[in-house]
Amino acid sequence: MTNSKQNSKVYIEIVEYLRSLIDKNRLKPGDKIPSERELSDRMNVGRSSVREALRALELLGLIETRRGEGTFLKNFREHQLVQLLSTFVLQDEQAKKDVKETKYLIELGSILLILMKEKLDALYIRQWEEKESIDDKEFFYELVKATDNFLLKKIWMILNDYYDSLNLQPLNVSKSCYINLLKAIESKNKEQAIELYKKEIRNLSEKL
Predict the structure, then answer these.
(1) Structural domain ending residue among the three candidates 76, 104, 132
(2) pTM
(3) Same-domain status, 112 and 193
């Protein structure tokens, strides 16, 4: 194993350890985390590796070091981190295309998952009908959440933040399109639901 691979493995181990420590001790922004020396001793890894990992986390805005006090979890907003990462990750057209495609596939997959489950509550549809307008992000967040698949929802949320950072031309979708999609799902009309999503809401080609 090369030195770069070894360093990468140690870095991931340190990040995973900190994540488990945060979960276990229910740490929140402003709470102190173990020092560089403590992490090095607990994990039995070199202090230089710990220092590099902490420096990377600090650059990402996840932690902050206060001289003479220690290192603390930082109160950051997730979208700021996404914006920062996107400047590195989404520089080429293929990466942008991949984000869009994967987000749309998850949304389409969520529709299919819901179709396999019990009927959509009519009250749920009426709640959307009563809205003056429908926000696309809110609509699909609730739709993905309705699958009861936590991992799917988490992946969609991350992808959607990247998607937002692309600053794409907003899709002009009427309220009736969203309502018709919900009604197609409620009536278990798979073909119509897919057609509405692809053609009316996402304006996709037949490739997806």
Answers:
(1) 76
(2) 0.60
(3) yes
Q: In which domain, by residue range, is 61 found?
A: 3-76
Does the residue 190 lie in any domain?
yes
How many CA within 13 A on the CB side of residue 125? Answer: 16
Rounded CA gap, 205 and 21, in Å? 46
pLDDT values of the chain reduced to their tens digit, one per residue, 208 residues: 445 445 557 777 887 788 788 878 888 888 999 999 999 999 998 888 888 888 888 877 778 889 889 999 886 555 455 555 555 555 677 878 888 899 999 999 999 999 998 767 766 788 999 999 999 999 999 999 999 898 899 889 888 888 887 777 878 899 999 999 999 999 999 999 999 999 999 988 655 5
Residue 63, SS3?
strand
The dihedral sign for the CA sequence 175, 139, 185, 168: positive
Does residue 173 share a domain with residue 146? yes
Query: Is 162 part of any domain?
Result: yes
- Regarding whether 38 and 139 lie in a shared domain, the answer is no
Sequence-separated (6 or more) residues with CB below 8 Å from residue 191: none
Q: Strand 32-33's sheet: what is its strand order?
A: 32-33, 70-73, 63-66
Counting the structural domains of the chain, the total is 2
Two tokens at 196? 């509405």
